[in-house]
Amino acid sequence: MAARLAPDNVRSMHQSLHHLVADAPWSDEAMLDRVRQQVFPALQKHGPVIAWIVDDTGFPKQGKHSVGVTRQYCGQVGKQDNCQAAVSLSVSTCNASLPVAWRLYLPEAWCQDSERRRKAGIPEEIEFQTKPSIALEQMRQAMKQKIPVGVVLADAAYGNGMAFRTAISELGLQYAMAIESSTTVWEPGQQPLPVPPRKPGRGAPPKRLQRNDEHLPVSAKQLGLGLPPSAWKDTGWRQGSKGTLRSRFAAVRVRPAHRDYKRTEPHPEEWLLIEWPKNESEPTKYWLCTLPAGTSLKSLVKIAKHRWVIERDYEELKQELGLGHYEGRGWRGFHHHATLCIAAYGFLVSERSLFSPSARVGHVGLRAAPFPRDFRPRGSPRTSRAA
């Protein structure tokens, strides 16, 4: 980049760019707000916002000095490893999406280590927050910014949390959250036993809902296995590289059962969506969804499956735009680097609407300044004069 911008003064430009990313005191929030203003008109050109997608991604790192690095689950390698992790909120239409919030997850060990905090430049106001807590903060901020709302989508790492799902409902948002097969629900038409009447002379009247050995909730897996064959419908949701993606789904109205024995009212009804591919011996995926009771099965499937776009976003951000290439150690540089990658991604989202499909495949006529004749990229092997 330095060679493109200043062919006659590469070293000085390189230092300036490094300062811009690692140390310059510009606001990530202001930059992302400006990116939204520029990109949203193009994003919504072919349809409205339909989803807010919550996710996190990991960056494998060696050592212990890069901000936030610790041994934790890293999706990039599919196991526990030494890495950094960041939580994001993306806004998506049917055809395009854009990250609108980005925040490093800071483990408790880092929050409590004043020396490491000082060296990494972590702001004093940053305290330990779980990933769901960070995501909720991002959604609250997005609502203050009046970003067009959509159905909140997330994987089971977020969807398993009843408190997280409840907080989303309290914000006035709908969700379609993946859950684990062990999540307990009341079968269709059932709910906890009502509060029993007070018995004379037995102290304060009971206030909480009841269960007994004959009246208990079941796991999502148990419910799915017990559904009749007529409940399962072959449903498609989008075009893949080999045609329409299809599978078998069932959707039933249930009440979540999480600790409702401590409540005075049962949880509201919502959809339990289950996927059971024909070639599998049991259901494979489960979602809880607060879309209206009259929502069609096809609509439920399409919105639940729409979370795939975040995988595409991260793949393009990491492989094409260098999101995982930051080599610094500081808090500010980590977020500046991600913000600039998101800005570049937003530029591409906007530009894609300007060219015909054939132009996107080949040369579109954009020009860049030439490299200086004697320029050698950093890290490239030296060659002999004879060569």
Can you write the helix and strand succession as a string? HHHEEEEHHHEHHEEEHEEEEHHHH
The oligomeric state is single chain
The gross shape turns out to be globular
**End-to-end distance:** 26 Å
Radius of gyration: 25 Å
Low-pLDDT stretches: 355-366
Walkthrough of the structure:
It is a single chain. This protein has a domain at 51-155 and 307-353. It contains 13 helices and twelve strands. It has helices spanning 2-5, 10-22, 28-43, 108-111, 114-120, 131-144, 156-159, 162-170, 220-226, 297-305, 308-319, 331-352, 357-361; strands spanning 51-60, 70-74, 79-92, 97-104, 151-154, 175-179, 184-186, 218-219, 233-240, 243-256, 270-275, 285-289. Strands 1, 2, 3, 4, 5, 6, 7, 8, 9, 10, 11 and 12 form a twelve-stranded mixed beta sheet that branches. α3 runs parallel beside α12 (331-352). The longest helix has 22 residues, at 331-352. The radius of gyration is 25 Å and the shape is globular. The chain starts with a helix and ends in a 26-residue tail after the last helix.
